Structure formats: structure tokens, C-alpha cells
Amino acid sequence: MAEQSTPQPMTVDEVGERYTNKWILMEVTECDERDAPTAGIVLAIGRKEADIQEATMKALREPNLRSKGYYTFRAYRRVPPESEGFAMIQETILRSARRGIRRR
To answer: What's the total number of domains in the chain?
Structure first.
């Protein structure tokens, strides 16, 4: 019988890197000083927000008392600061422009 591993908490940035452009339902395990979620356990992943709706409703019906709440969001890669971030934005714009040209 295979041993099931317990899901490990991930930061919101790690989720953004791993699941870019996916909808995420996360059980929050850490918040910053403004109570914004910074880390948690990913409970569901979907291409559309509707794909995680059932899991969200289940989580809300059966709350985990140790949880700091639940967070649903569309995951994105964080833009790095300064020149590295500027280069990343430029590459994204160029890639989008190339795709737009091909579609026409």
C-alpha cells in the first residue's frame, strides 16, 4: 500500500511559479502584518475559476479550525525588481506581440 504524503505549505510566490495562469484554492497557513495570505497548502487547481468551485464550497462547509482561512486566486509569476523584472516584462510583451501577429 502506497504511503500518502502530507501536502507541504508553499508560499504564494512558489504557487505562482509552479501553477502560472491557473486558479488556486489555498488553505492559508501564514499571513503578513496586513493579514494578506503569504503561504498555505494548495487544495485545488483549475484552468477556470469554476473548476475549483466545488472544492471551495466543500472547504467552506467543513472548515479546518487550525486554518487561517482560505484564499482563491489566479496564480501569476511575480515580476522581479529592477532590470531583471524590466527584461521579463519586455520579453512577455514581445512574445504576446508575436502571437498576435501569427493569429491575424
So the answer is: 1
- Exposed, middle or buried: residue 24 (CB in 10 Å: 0-12, 13-18, 19+)? buried
Report field, pTM of the whole predicted structure over 0.85: no
**Residues forming beta bridges with residue 26, ordered by sequence position:** 42, 71
- Host H or E run for residue 39: strand 37-46
The reported pLDDT for the residue numbered 71 is: 94
97 lies in some domain: no
- 54: in domain: yes
63 is a domain residue: yes
Task: Fill in the DSSP letter of residue 76.
Answer: -
Residue 43 domain-assigned (yes or no): yes
Residue ranges in the chain whose pLDDT is less than 50: 104
